[in-house]
Amino acid sequence: MEKGFVFLDEMLPGVRWDAKYATWDNFTGKPVAGYLVNRVAGTYELAAALQKVQEQAADLGYGLLLWDGYRPKRAVDCFLRWAAQEEDFLTKAKHYPHIERGDMIEEGYVAEKSAHSRGSTVDLTLYGLKDFELLDMGGSFDFMDSLSHHGAQGISPEATNNRLLLRSLMEKNGFTPFFAEWWHYTLQEEPYPDTYFDFPLF
Q1: CA–CA separation, 156 vs 135, rounded Å?
Q2: What's the pLDDT score for residue 109?
Q3: pTM summary value
Q4: 27-50: string of b/e by CB count within 10 Å (b at 16+)?
């Protein structure tokens, strides 16, 4: 592991994770370059801030489930190559039913330079500590659609409130949301704001 980085489960006891890009269950339809293990990593500063989020969420009866944190630059490059390929419809219905694959960059869902590669951005959601069920957020991770935007119309009042709860917890602990993805937050005081790392996760 690069100096200054840690697997987040090592600092967040009891946290759940499902590193989608290490699996076949993501918008590319296969494991992504750089993800050699199903774990989520990030900077120590990210982990410390998430500890506070985790503690406050637990007081309300919720836990954290992480989908992604640090993302190697080679993974971002993999996304860009994939977006330029001809459509095969393998994941379109689940992840981007209303846009074309080639429009993902312009729409803001795939970045040419991702904040994740700086190590202090995280994709996450909440689940109930009693029933272990994920909270209804009105849409799934990496659903590339306006329904995933903050303030989206067309989702239930429950989902709206759940998104606001997650956002409140994250902003209270120094995170900034990304307008197009309710699950995506970046630490405001990130330690490497100008560095895009490329070490693999293994």
Answers
A1: 12
A2: 93
A3: 0.96
A4: bbeebbbbbeeebbbbbbbbbebb
